[in-house]
């Protein structure tokens, strides 16, 4: 009996554990309901304050502020405009934001274990032609230099770590989001054909050498045959092309819901194809389609931009009326913290606000705004002690369940180098992907926490049947107007053009909804372009 | 009457047959359990057989004092043998934790079973002596006794243990034993007294055995013995891994998550190869860093160099380092290295720690588990080595265990190539470690002041490494792999290579 002592401990431990476990089983079962006390928190954009714009029952302004440039809104287009002003040597501007923080859709939350996104959460590698974005990334050391062939060297720790994506398909996790396992040869052939077609669109240029699809999308070709795609829904185009394979249709629908909030039955074919064809994948030497991401999502990019707004920001302030008087723009603003109003008097104003907000400021704008559809979203961030599944492929950054109404979940701690996390933090995404937008939005704001919790769990249980017993905390974040959804005839339609037009060379508009798709790059360029327009105009003056 | 008697006789002889079979099975179960749990099978079997036979003799002796109700007593003994013999393995298995009384209980159980079996044969002969001719009686009883023994000894290793397991076998035979008693209760009800009480006892005993039998699988499934086929002397699950230490003859083996970490007979080869090339090449060895290696065996080798001033060991698992600091068997292996005054043990995540530490090191020994998953893969990435480079003194030497160049050449050269992207000089070498096979390392220098053939210092008394590095860095054709990518956090190609290569085995 050498080393009996050690053997002992383990045996004794074993026997005790077995005995305790047997004893504990009935007790545990009896009080299971009580043990799982999950903390649920509900948050969202400040829609109550926002909705006061409808009635405008704000106190009368009691003081005035004078500023040459006013930026209304604090999302990426606003922050990007602030950066561009600063770059042009202009520092006398003011950013006014209704929330208590800047960032808009690029905001984030944080718990004991991790930061997590409250909206947008990644940036695909920029196109080689997108010099402004490349410059920004280099300023922020996300690009650390260029190699001898001219390819940007991205900071590896900000590129998605491998393995990046998995799909729960036919009861197993598979690597990648395109359904692979168990397809028929015909299905595989259609999938292959679709991607071939997309790469043709990606490389395709018109006779002037302009890409059919580009980012920002305003750079895309004017070619009528391509623009005609905006007349169709993605579904109509798919049918026209003869694609019938369900796994493929499901995948395209997923991509559309993920990027536009609406599925293939509703979004424009031009937008749908843009998703696949606009990113040229020409800044990675091996042409891969990796993305930049951070635990807090695009809030990281917002925080880089925020430095330009330091001491030039009013948060918890809502602009409720904008008018031009005596060659000045007067923005009546309510200070939600002090419950008082003020007038901000500016030479020029950038409305970096979405059009569903702008309709309350300007005459005859409701008609234009009718054509802007915003899909409601919600995100649920879960803290789980464990995340067991059938082990068919390890946990990835992006985890999608085939055939689910949700958009899957992100593993928020994926971009860490630590071996083991005490708890796992995941963020689940859900878009209301039908055209009954108003009804969905009412539902979003009227239902209680447990309703949304159940939706999340019912979905996640397909791949993680036992997840409920491991959840410790849930944070549900609601976005009533999650993102602009490009339905047919919108991107090249009249409403968008009219909504973008500046007023009297005093009031200017910049927002990703004016581009037509809700991505970081568009908002970023909206901000830069509007500042350039203002300054060019001023030079002409 | 003659016919009925015939039935009576054969019934009892059949009982003898089963008693003999069951008796021998209990003996074999005890012997097997004892040699499995205590080791030294020759001694254990010899003692068990001796005690068992002696106990049978004791039983036989006491048989002569049983004169009343002999048939009832016979059935009762049958029930008792079934119950005690049947439960013996379960009792032994569960009581093994109390070492000091374990051997006593073992032999007590063997003795009682032996006694009871020993009682039965004389008792039976006494029951039958008036009904059968003595000559026939003796020869029949012993014939069936020995046939039963033969059957048991053949079935036990070939069928019973493989199919039922040790615990299942003894319980199964306990049930057979008791069912004979039940059968006798019903068939001989005319000859038996207070037959209902006897029946209740018999059926009760059967039910007990049956219930335990139903649970035996779940009890057995916890026995890691099945997995390792070696004598486990320690097993513990820390939050990070399952640590199992086994002992077989003079060899101790440590398994982490079922992967062999070291075998005490040849670990010196691995640890000398891991530590001494780097230690001898380095310009100075004042501050040495060990990442992983919570067993303290690499530290033991490092401490052989007297000019080492400080060793920092960073291992995630406190359970592991504590074990190798406190367990007397294990501190014998690492020569108490983790308790040495020069050694600082940090239970931290190596990557995170390396990013934050301000200190610099002259030699770094990286002894992480193989890159078998995406978490571990990060510890072999370009980013990790770049982080490591930040905490090196100029001309520091880094050595990394890099799996087997024979079984996993792509993985091996992938790590090597990844290190080449970071460090100015990199070489690879390998050593044969019998329990692992051909094993490899990559070694890097953080400068050009020294080269891989430099020997700045050496120690006496190594059993394997001879300070001739050029004898170790030659790779035969079957250990070379070309067209290998660099392992980056965003491709984790190493984990894919590793999975592909070790998955094939």
Please provide a written account of the structure.
The complex is a heterodimer of chains A (541) and B (505). Chain A has 541 residues and is an alpha/beta fold. Chain A has a domain at 47-108 and 297-371 and 486-540: FAD/NAD(P)-binding domain, CATH 3.50.50.60. In chain A, 35% of the residues lie in helices and 23% in strands. Chain A has 17 helices and 21 strands. In chain A, helix 3 (76-87) packs across helix 17, helix 5 crosses helix 9 (269-277) and helix 7 (234-241) crosses helix 9. Chain A starts with a helix and ends with a helix. Residues 1-35 of chain A have low confidence and may be disordered. By secondary structure, chain B is an alpha/beta fold. Chain B has three domains: 2-223, Growth Hormone, Chain: A; 231-259, no CATH class; 264-503, 3-Layer(aba) Sandwich (Rossmann fold), CATH 3.40.50.150. Chain B is 55% helix and 15% strand. Chain B has 16 helices and eleven strands. Chain B has helices spanning 2-38, 41-63, 70-95, 99-128, 134-187, 195-220, 225-228, 267-281, 297-302, 318-326, 328-333, 350-356, 374-377, 382-389, 409-420, 493-503; strands at 231-237, 242-248, 251-256, 259-263, 287-292, 310-314, 343-346, 361-367, 392-401, 425-433, 437-445. Chain B has a seven-stranded mixed β-sheet, with helices on both faces. In chain B, strands 1-2-3-4 form a four-stranded antiparallel β-sheet. In chain B, helix 9 (297-302) links the parallel strand 5 and strand 6. The longest helix of chain B has 54 residues, at 134-187. The N and C termini of chain B lie far apart (71 Å). The chains are: A alpha/beta (541), B alpha/beta (505). The interface between A and B is large, with 30 and 44 residues.
């Amino acid at each position: 009996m050498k080393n009996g002592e050690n053997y002992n401990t383990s045996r004794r431990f074993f026997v005790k554990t077995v005995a305790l476990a047997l004893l504990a089983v009935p007790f545990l079962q009896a009080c299971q309901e009580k043990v799982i006390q999950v903390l649920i928190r509900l948050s969202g954009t400040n829609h109550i304050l926002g909705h006061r714009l409808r009635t405008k029952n704000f106190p009368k302004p009691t003081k005035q502020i004078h500023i040459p440039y006013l930026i209304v809104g604090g999302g990426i287009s606003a922050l990007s405009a602030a950066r561009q002003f600063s770059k042009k040597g202009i520092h006398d501007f003011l950013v006014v934001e209704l929330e208590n923080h800047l960032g808009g859709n690029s905001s984030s939350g944080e718990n004991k274990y991790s930061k997590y996104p409250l909206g947008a959460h990644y940036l695909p590698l920029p196109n080689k032609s997108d010099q402004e974005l490349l410059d920004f990334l280099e300023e922020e050391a996300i690009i650390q230099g260029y190699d001898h062939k001219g390819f940007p060297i991205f900071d590896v720790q900000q590129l998605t770590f491998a393995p990046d994506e998995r799909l729960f398909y036919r009861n197993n996790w598979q690597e990648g989001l395109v359904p692979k396992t168990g397809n028929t040869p015909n299905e595989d052939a259609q999938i292959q054909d679709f991607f071939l077609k997309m790469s043709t669109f990606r490389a395709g240029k018109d006779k002037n050498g302009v890409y059919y699809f580009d980012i920002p999308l305003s750079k895309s070709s004017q070619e009528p045959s391509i623009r005609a795609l905006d007349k169709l829904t993605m579904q109509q185009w798919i049918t026209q092309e003869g694609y019938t394979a369900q796994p493929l249709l499901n995948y395209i629908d997923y991509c559309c819901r993920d990027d536009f909030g609406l599925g293939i039955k509703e979004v424009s074919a031009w937008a749908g194809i843009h998703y696949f064809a606009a990113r040229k994948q020409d800044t990675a030497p091996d042409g891969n389609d990796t993305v930049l991401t951070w635990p807090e999502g695009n809030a990281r990019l917002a925080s880089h931009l925020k430095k330009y707004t330091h001491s030039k920001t009013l948060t918890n302030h809502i602009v409720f009326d904008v008018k031009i008087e005596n060659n000045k723009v007067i923005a009546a603003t309510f200070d939600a913290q002090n419950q008082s109003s003020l007038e901000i008097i500016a030479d020029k104003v950038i409305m970096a606000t979405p059009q569903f907000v702008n309709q309350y400021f300007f005459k005859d704008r409701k008609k234009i705004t009718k054509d802007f559809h915003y899909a409601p979203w919600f995100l649920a961030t879960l803290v789980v002690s464990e995340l067991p599944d059938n082990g068919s492929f390890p946990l990835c950054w992006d985890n999608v369940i085939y055939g689910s109404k949700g958009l899957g979940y992100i593993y928020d701690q994926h971009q860490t180098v630590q071996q083991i996390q005490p708890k796992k933090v995941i963020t689940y995404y859900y878009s209301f992907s039908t055209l009954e937008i108003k009804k969905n939005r009412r539902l979003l704001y009227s239902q209680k926490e447990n309703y949304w919790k159940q939706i999340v769990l019912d979905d996640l249980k397909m791949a993680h049947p036992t997840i409920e017993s491991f959840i410790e905390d849930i944070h549900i974040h609601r976005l009533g107007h999650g993102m602009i959804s490009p339905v047919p005839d919108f991107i090249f339609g009249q409403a968008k053009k009219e909504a973008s037009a500046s007023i009297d060379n005093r009031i200017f508009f910049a927002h990703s909804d004016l581009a037509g798709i809700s991505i970081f790059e568009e908002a970023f360029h909206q901000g830069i372009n509007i500042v350039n327009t203002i300054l060019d105009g001023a030079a002409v003056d | 009457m003659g016919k009925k008697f015939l039935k009576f006789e054969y019934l009892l002889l059949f009982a003898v047959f089963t008693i003999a079979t069951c008796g021998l099975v209990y003996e074999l179960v005890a012997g097997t359990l004892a040699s499995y749990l205590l080791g030294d099978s020759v001694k254990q079997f010899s003692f068990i057989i001796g005690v068992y036979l002696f106990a049978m003799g004791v039983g036989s002796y006491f048989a002569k004092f049983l004169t009343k109700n002999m048939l009832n007593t016979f059935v009762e003994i049958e029930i008792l043998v079934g119950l005690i013999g049947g439960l013996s393995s379960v009792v032994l298995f569960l009581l093994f934790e109390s070492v000091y009384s374990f051997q006593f209980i073992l032999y007590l159980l063997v003795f009682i079973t032996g006694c009871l079996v020993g009682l039965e044969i004389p008792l039976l002969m006494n029951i039958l002596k008036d009904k059968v001719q003595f000559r026939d009686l003796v020869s029949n009883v012993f014939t069936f006794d020995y046939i039963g023994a033969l059957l048991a000894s053949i079935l036990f290793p070939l069928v019973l243990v493989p199919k039922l397991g040790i615990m299942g076998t003894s319980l199964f035979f306990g049930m057979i034993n008791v069912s004979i008693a039940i059968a006798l209760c019903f068939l001989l009800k005319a000859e038996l007294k207070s037959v209902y009480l006897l029946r209740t006892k018999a059926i009760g005993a059967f039910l007990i055995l049956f219930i335990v039998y139903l649970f035996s699988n779940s009890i057995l499934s916890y026995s890691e013995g099945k997995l390792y086929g070696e004598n486990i002397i320690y097993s513990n699950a820390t939050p990070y891994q399952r640590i199992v230490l086994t002992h077989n003859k003079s060899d101790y083996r440590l398994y982490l998550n079922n992967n062999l970490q070291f075998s005490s007979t040849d670990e010196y080869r691995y640890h000398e190869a891991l530590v001494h090339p780097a230690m001898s090449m380095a310009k100075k060895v004042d501050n040495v860093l060990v990442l992983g290696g919570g067993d303290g065996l690499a530290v033991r080798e490092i401490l052989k160099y007297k000019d080492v001033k400080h060793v920092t060991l960073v291992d995630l698992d406190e359970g592991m380092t504590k074990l190798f600091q406190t367990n007397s068997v294990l501190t014998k292996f690492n020569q108490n290295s983790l308790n040495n005054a020069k050694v600082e043990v940090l239970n931290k995540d190596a990557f995170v720690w390396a990013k934050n530490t301000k200190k610099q090191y002259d030699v770094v020994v990286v002894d992480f588990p193989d890159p078998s998953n995406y978490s571990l893969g990060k510890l072999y990435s370009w980013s990790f080595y770049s982080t490591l480079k930040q905490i090196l003194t100029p001309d520091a030497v880094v050595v990394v265990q890099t799996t087997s160049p024979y079984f996993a050449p792509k993985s091996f050269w992938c790590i090597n190539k990844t290190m080449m992207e970071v460090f100015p000089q990199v070489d690879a070498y390998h050593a044969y470690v019998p329990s692992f096979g051909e094993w490899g390392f990559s070694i890097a220098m953080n400068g050009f002041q020294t080269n891989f053939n430099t020997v700045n210092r050496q120690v006496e008394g190594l059993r394997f490494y001879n300070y001739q590095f050029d004898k170790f860095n030659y790779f035969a054709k079957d250990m070379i792999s070309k067209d290998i990518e660099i392992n980056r956090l965003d491709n984790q190609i190493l984990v894919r290579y590793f999975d592909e290569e070790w998955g094939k085995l």
